[in-house]
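Case study 2.
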Amino acid sequence: MGPSKQVQDAITFSEKSRGVAIETVGAANVSLSHLGGRDPKIVSLALLCRTISNFKGAITMVREGLVTAARTLTRCCYENLIWAAALNERGSEFVADQSESRFPDSKKLHVDKTALDGPVELTYAIFGQLSLQAAHPTITALGRHLHSELEGDTRHLVIDVVPDVSERELLRTVWWSCDALLGVAIASTEILGGTNDALRQAFEELRRLSKRDLEDQAIPVTAAAE
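Prediction:
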């Protein structure tokens, strides 16, 4: 059984959002500087391309009803957004910090510190939720595969290979993914020194549609879109 009409409508909007993000990359005109691949403008475009790929994977998983996999990829999109916002704010300094970060160097960057040091600390709450409920094999995440059934006077613990998922979870995942994707695209546009009315319009439409679908729990406005 495929997605409901409401989820399918959200997926349709997500495809529109991905198209706008791809157009943002295509419209970029960046002259190569002495910084080469470490130029913040180049880095921002690479980060946007990475987000487009993560986003496509997330929506594909939503179509399959695999919400844990979808939210793991959505978490990647939010991590990209946190990085994009820091890049927008700090430019070459942030790129240098990234360049000096080498696993397992104890000085490597941490996304929580990057978020708290930047303008998108509100999105870190979503990032943290996605980490706990999807990306990491926490007890909370693993609990999705368990439920109990009563047979007579005996209650049995049942393990689900593919657990059931609610329409609301799928909707929220789509809207979160769109939020992060458009946020990265907006940050990239600002780093490139341009404007993009299509991005702004898409973000406003996202706000309206998510509020309609999720009532009073519409996604937060990211700092990148303010």
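Residues 5-225 form one domain.
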